[in-house]
Amino acid sequence: MRPWISCLIACLAASSLLAAPSKVRLFDGKSFHGWDGDTNQTFHVKDGMIVGGTFSRVQPRNEFLATTSRYTNFVLRAKFKLTGTEGFVNSGIQFRSERVPNDSEMKGYQADIGEGWFGTLYDESRRNKPMAKPSETAVKTAVKLGEWNDYEVRCEGPHIVLKINGVLMVDYTEADASIPQHGRIGLQVHGGGRTEVFFKDLFLEPLH
Question: Which of 7, 123, 137, 178 could form an S-S bond across to 127 if both were Cys, CB 3.0 to 4.6 Å?
Fold first, then answer.
């Protein structure tokens, strides 16, 4: 092979690597750097995990730990485990969301977590309803109750896909052009239950 051809191939390979989207580690495993929320009573870091809620009291209201950065098109992957002893045991992962001013709430899309809600795409504090729900068969096939599960959220323009443990939950295309296609990532502890929810290995891969 001629030297200039080898050089050209090497340059093209290098430029391809530079152009490839880089994976973003959202949680460093030891601090809330890059996040904000109620880190006094609701959220804490333990053994490389984000822990939300406690069994020692009923969660008084919805609380969210949210990234300070905003994202548009991406694949988000996170491991979660939900446990609870009484009341409404529920959580979720917000995305393309914002905080409601002077309130603990966030508004925007949520990848729901909880019995009867796993894999549901819910519109939190905005349209206040499920936008798409998985089949019972898909949920039973995928979800491991009380154990670690993998959530995948894929957003490309108006197209949103949710998967749990590699099983498709919902494939949704937003028809309302006024709905923002960017925003913050958030982790929810739902009010009304004695709940502990755990998150770890939170990675986001930006898309074009």
Answer: 123
Q: How many Cα atoms occupy the beta-carbon half-sphere of 89 within 13 Å?
A: 17
C-beta separation of 40 from 190 below 8 A: no
Q: Read off the pLDDT of residues 11-46 as tens digits, 9 standing for 90 and up.
A: 444 444 445 558 999 999 999 999 999 999 999 999
List of long-range contacts for 167-171, beta carbons under 8 Å, 24+ apart: 167/138, 167/141, 167/142, 168/134, 168/138, 169/118, 169/119, 169/120, 169/121, 169/134, 169/138, 169/139, 169/142, 170/119, 170/120, 170/121, 170/132, 170/133, 170/134, 171/132
Low-confidence stretches of the chain (pLDDT beneath 50):
8-9, 11-18
Structure tokens given for 151: 């959530």
- Say how far apart CA 150 and CA 163 lie, in whole Å: 8
User: How is the chain split into domains, by residue range?
Assistant: 23-206
The pLDDT assigned to 4 comes to: 54
β-strand partners of 170:
162
Name the CATH topology of 23-206.
Jelly Rolls (2.60.120)
State how far the alpha carbon of 131 is from the alpha carbons of 95, 127, 152, in Å: 14, 9, 17
pTM above 0.85, yes or no: yes
